[in-house]
Design goal:
alpha/beta; eight-stranded mixed beta sheet; 12 helices
Length: 419
């Protein structure tokens, strides 16, 4: 599998890759309010910013890492996205954030600052291409819409917005995993070694950006899964701006298929189970429709804590981009990450863990339906159902923000043909 552009869990994940080969020195580097822009001019433009393409980082822990972004975009083993853009005369601006868990609306101000600087540095009058990966597509979408509606801001001078496996209609963070993480943090968050990992992971799930993206969220064990107030407020703010920038062509890709074919993860299956020093017969299940007990959490010597859901779809197995967390030991995915945490807590995990699940359903990535709708999740996607002007879904369900020739070449062609 090719390297992903955005590592969802980041350095919070146990066994996460600690470093990447260094990226080439950027031709220019801009310090922005809340972030940094790394500028790579096309060799065809003699170190002048002529045809700018701004590519925004997405959701993860901490600040953006240029080496990691470059690796995912350019050294992914499948498609050299930056080189292909350079070959068409496009200058690439990689946009990173000081805090990738901050509110989408806050990081949108960093996008606006980047667009201002790009326009100021640009030679000529070529329009901008602006977009991003995962949450980056939402941040840039909001920023462009805000620039069109706020008379105090300049025009964005952008002709094309692109999104790469962006959760336009929400992302899926399994409720069972959210509950287990908060349960483990409540009980062992102060334990040397594993405690800081648990606190960071729980904090990541409860961060402003995670709450804004997650279609169903719980802040603590016992909460009813629902849209967080932060998501409700963000959607309201986006709607007040018209939902989308109006004066740009909107394109997007999904790392999942458009055929309605799921990823093979069965509903109501035991994804991970453990017993040991700290946990007794603790298990997490994949999501199913109707009333369901999705997790049983039991600290050794205490009563079990059941976690229940109601009215959710079979979403773990839905077509879409899959959870990924690159590491030397392989990709632990979503439930696989919970298994690693269980092991760190001194427990033996049963074999045959269902490691991964859907993160961004295809219908969310191409804005083609409500991910709470079971039928819509598994229905073939047609152009008339999407809010985008053009989109492409992958030929298979693959890792979230995996850069492939299939998707990358399509985007490059769309950028070239949009002029």
């Amino acid at each position: 599998m090719s390297t992903t552009v955005v590592d969802v869990w980041g350095q919070v994940a146990p066994e996460a890759r600690s470093s990447f080969p260094p990226a080439p020195e950027p031709h220019d580097e801009w310090a922005l309010a809340g972030g940094t822009a790394w500028v790579y001019y096309s060799p065809l433009n003699r170190r002048q910013l002529i045809r700018p393409v701004i590519l925004s980082d997405g959701f993860s822990s901490g600040s953006s890492n240029l080496d990691q972004l470059w690796h995912g975009l350019e050294e992914n083993g499948d498609f050299r996205f930056i080189s292909e853009l350079h070959a068409t005369g496009r200058d690439v601006i990689i946009l990173g954030y000081d805090d990738r868990t901050a509110s989408i609306t806050d990081n949108a101000d960093t996008v606006i600052d980047c667009i201002r600087r790009t326009i100021a540095e640009r030679v000529g009058r070529s329009s901008l291409v602006v977009g991003g990966f995962s949450m980056g597509g939402l941040v840039t979408r909001y920023a462009l819409a805000k620039m069109e509606n706020d008379p105090t801001l300049p025009h964005h001078e952008t002709s094309l917005h692109l999104s790469y496996d962006t959760p336009h209609h929400g992302a899926w963070l399994p409720v069972s995993i959210q509950a287990f993480t908060h349960f483990a943090t409540d009980n062992w968050g102060d334990t040397p070694g594993v405690g800081p990992v648990l606190r960071q992971f729980s904090g990541l799930l409860n961060s402003p950006a995670a709450k804004q993206m997650a279609r169903w969220h719980i802040e603590k064990v016992g909460d009813t899964p629902a849209q967080a107030s932060e998501r409700v407020a963000f959607l309201k703010a986006l709607d007040e701006l018209g939902g989308w920038p109006r004066s740009v062509r909107k394109i997007g890709v999904a790392n999942g298929v458009d055929t309605g074919t799921g990823n093979g993860v069965k509903a109501d299956a035991t994804a991970v189970r453990c017993n040991g020093e700290t946990l007794t017969d603790t298990w997490l299940k994949t999501q199913a429709q109707g009333e369901q007990e999705v997790a049983r959490l039991q600290k050794a010597g205490e009563d079990p804590v059941p976690v229940r859901t109601s009215g959710l779809p079979d979403i773990d197995g839905a077509p879409g981009g899959l959870f990924t967390a690159p590491s030397p030991a392989g990709d632990p995915g979503s439930f696989g990450l919970a298994a690693l945490l269980m092991g760190l807590l001194g427990n033996k995990v049963d074999p045959d863990v269902i490691t991964t699940s859907c993160f961004v359903p295809s219908i969310s990535a191409v804005a083609a339906g409500d991910i709470a709708d079971q039928k819509a999740l598994y229905r073939p996607i047609t152009p008339d159902t999407s809010e985008l002007d053009a989109f492409l879904c992958a030929g298979r369900n693959e890792g979230h923000t995996t850069m492939t020739e299939e998707l990358g070449a399509w985007i490059v062609n769309e950028i070239v043909s949009s002029e």
